[in-house]
Amino acid sequence: MRPLTEEETKTMFEKLSRYIGENIKLLLDRPDGTYCFRLHNDRVYYVSEKILKLATNIARDKLVSLGTCFGKFTKTQKFRLHITALDYLAPYAKFKVWVKPGAEQSFLYGNHVLKSGLGRITENTSQYQGVVVYSMADIPLGFGVVAKSTLECRKVDPMTIVVFHQADIGEYVRHEESLT
């Protein structure tokens, strides 16, 4: 478990800022203490400094994980956000998309969101902006990238993709299936 290098931090913060903007500061300085990001086996963990100090008693090779996994660095040094970060990023999301109940299941199976399944979208969302995808009952379902801006969404064909799928809460079930 080590602190992120300057380049790793920059790469990760650029990815996070696509979804929550300047609200990254709110993740680090919380009312319940200071939090930080640590790297272990190419995965980035979000952990309280109190727990981090306690973890120093455990040998690095014996440590499996610590805190919440926010994502991982690929072999090409790109950062992929994991679905486990959803609960921490959803409250700070600047841009949101709500999907209709019929499209909700399709999204949870790993499919993109079509215009016909789009319930609402945050005003002034630009093209290729990172968004948090919600159900109509305001339950966060996952992450996506908007394929069309808010204005373009109003004019497109119902079968056009408006949100590219990135990650969703159904991944747990799909991943478990592949293990058996």
In short:
The chain is 30% helix and 32% strand.
| Helical segment count | 7
Number of strands: 12
> Quick one: biggest sheet?
6 strands, antiparallel
List the helices and strands in order: EHHEEEHEEHEHEEEEHEH
Layout of helices and strands:
Blueprint: E1 2-3, H1 6-20, H2 24-28, E2 29-30, E3 33-40, E4 43-48, H3 49-55, E5 68-73, E6 79-81, H4 86-89, E7 96-99, H5 101-108, E8 113-114, E9 118-121, E10 130-135, E11 140-146, H6 150-155, E12 161-168, H7 171-179
Parallel strand pairs: 7-10
Antiparallel strand pairs: 1-3, 2-3, 3-4, 4-5, 5-6, 7-9, 8-12, 10-11, 11-12
Detailed description of the structure:
This protein is an alpha+beta fold. Helices cover 30% and strands 32% of the residues. It has helices spanning 6-20, 24-28, 49-55, 86-89, 101-108, 150-155, 171-179; strands spanning 2-3, 29-30, 33-40, 43-48, 68-73, 79-81, 96-99, 113-114, 118-121, 130-135, 140-146, 161-168. The strands form 2 sheets. Strands 1, 2, 3, 4, 5 and 6 form a 6-stranded antiparallel β-sheet that branches. The protein has a 6-stranded mixed β-sheet with strand order 8-12-11-10-7-9. A hairpin with a 4-residue loop joins strand 10 and strand 11. The longest helix is centred in the first third of the chain and has 15 residues, at 6-20. The protein is elongated and about 55 Å long. The model has no long low-confidence stretch (mean pLDDT 89).
